[in-house]
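Fresh eyes needed here. Kindly weigh in on this sequence plus structure tokens:
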Amino acid sequence: MATTLKIRSRALIRAFGGPRYAIALGVDALGTGMLRPFLLLYGVMVLGLTAPASGIAMTGGVVVGLVCMPAVGRWLDRGARSTVVAASMLIRVLGVTLLLATPPGHVWLFSTAALFLGIGNQAWPVAHAALVATVTDGRERDTALAAARSLRNAGMGAGALLATACLAGGANALQMLAVVTGLAYLTAAVLAWSVHLRARPAGTPAAVRGEVPAPRMRALLAANVIYVFCLNVPEIALPLVLVTQLQASPVWSAVIFVTNTALVVTLQVPVTALLARFSRRAVLAFAGVVLAVSYLGFLAATSLGGSWGAPAVALVSVVCTLGEIIYAGSSTALVTALAPARVLGRTLARFQLSTGFGLAVSPAVITGLAPHGPAALWGSLAAGTLLSASAVATEKDQESTARQSPPGVCTSVPVGTVIASPQAASAVGAGRRV
């Protein structure tokens, strides 16, 4: 259905859940950018751990975070919204506190800190998407999700730049960054909790509940594991190729990363709004095609070698970033559109499981394929992504008949915030899914 969207900052802030929640997003992203990229360095430089030990601890945190997703989904389906967002921030405060309390050489305390940080990092996207889906609907919800991603990338980029500038101070600077990160998480948690947003499921018989099943989305979830490889291409694949295969300066990797961040910040909302005239599933399939074309472009660029290879890779990376923007703007939006209100949390949790799994395995896959040559790396990624795009495009929305909850099944009640649109307000009043 063709939809024309006017991008207005005030409307987007309301769609976030209000100014306080928008500020919470920015503060949380700033803190995340300051610590998360340098957590491995903290383990090595401050605690004196080996790089493998620190890496294993961080991987364990990600895995445990994914294991906790079903519980987060059930909590959301009981009506919690801003409370879950605040909890995902508070548990990271606990992780940072443990990190600061860890004596040098104590890998188990570092592992516990990484575990709490991992749980918070995995739970936040699910809770945030559920909150946005509660206060707005339709294409306005899609734009709000895109705007939140743009804001988060800007905050994380700023935090990473600040942290990079402070790294010259060594171990003491890293400890100070951890302190500031903990304070940022705590501030963001208080602001998010103060929104007081909750969805109240109405009490209905089990027979009625059974009429609203969770969407299976098997092809979508499997395809998403491959799609999310694009998020690690600028951070892992391209630096690896530029340095080891093209013998290019590391400056090119920095240029590509900064360009990627800038494009996401500036284009995420307008591109999502521009493609709103098409179905979300078609847009997600198109994202796979764009990503596959960029992978083939990387294959061609690396074959140039010499002084032309690095600039060509940087140019193709813009196409890859556009594919990432299209993917990010349509994937979560499609999941929230498919999910009935009663099982929105569990559906988003399943989607986050596929995302987290893809992010966890992609570094190993990329670094495993790269030594076999550009054709093995980029050809495999292109083939897998095209296959995933085909699966997304051909999957039938069998759960579409259950997208709308029966009357009285779910009422979303934001307290102390503004509902983002008249359509959302009327949906709340009628007891329909927002």
